[in-house]
Every structure is written in C-alpha cells, then in structure tokens.
Amino acid sequence: MSDDHAAIWDEFKDAVNMTPAALRKHLDSEDSKEVGQKKGGGESTGHAMGRRILEIKDKKKADLTDDDYAAMKKVVGYVHRHLKQGGEARKDPDSAWRLSLMNWGHDPQKD
Question: Could you tell me where the DSSP H helices lie in 1-111?
Fold first, then answer.
C-alpha cells in the first residue's frame, strides 16, 4: 500500500465514525433522504456517498481500488470542512447539518 493510501485509510477511519449498521439505518430514514444537495431532484450527493461508504466498508483493505481511495479522500475532506461549520445547528440533533454529515458516515454527536 502506498504511503498516500495508508494516510487516506487512517483519515477515513477517523472521519467515518458510524458503524455500517448505523449508517445503513440512517440512509434508510426519510430524514436522510431529505437533506443535502440534489441534482435534478434525485438522490443527494451525500446520500449517494453514504451508499458508497458502505460498499467500501464491505471490502477487504487489500481489495480497495484507486477509485475507492479517491472516494475515501472526498469523504474525509467533506467531514473536515463541515465540522468547522454548524453554528447553532450543533445543538439540534435533528438539524440538516447533522443529518447531512451522517449521510457521509460521521455523527458529530459521537465526538
């Protein structure tokens, strides 16, 4: 594994703090489907990425592809950027801010 892949793996493990079961349950909820940026009224980018995270977590580390690592890097960037935001929404467990982060595999209330 390249040094870059090793670093991305470690950052991804830190950023995605939800278990696959918890993420799957969240993605199945109506709240999850209502938040996030949608192109053409379809599935939000974050909801689609949540499904991608589950695919990645179902793989063995040795079977991860460059595309998987690119997706993992994107997740890490999103989580880090959005954790710096939130403001008053941080106090609301049902805020769109939290629900959107959860689509990306991170529950800020677990920090």
Answer: 3-15, 20-27, 30-34, 45-58, 66-83, 96-103
pLDDT tens-digit readout, 89-111: 888 889 999 999 999 999 999 86
pLDDT digits (tens, 9 = 90+) for 56-90: 999 999 999 999 999 999 999 999 999 999 888 88
Cα–Cα distance measured from residue 57 to residue 34, given in angstroms and rounded to the nearest whole number:
24
> pTM here?
0.91
Residue count (the chain): 111
Sorted by sequence, the CB contacts under 8 Å of residue 106 that are 6+ apart come out as 15, 16, 17, 18, 79, 83
Using CA atoms, how far apart are residues 99 and 11, in angstroms rounded to an integer? 21
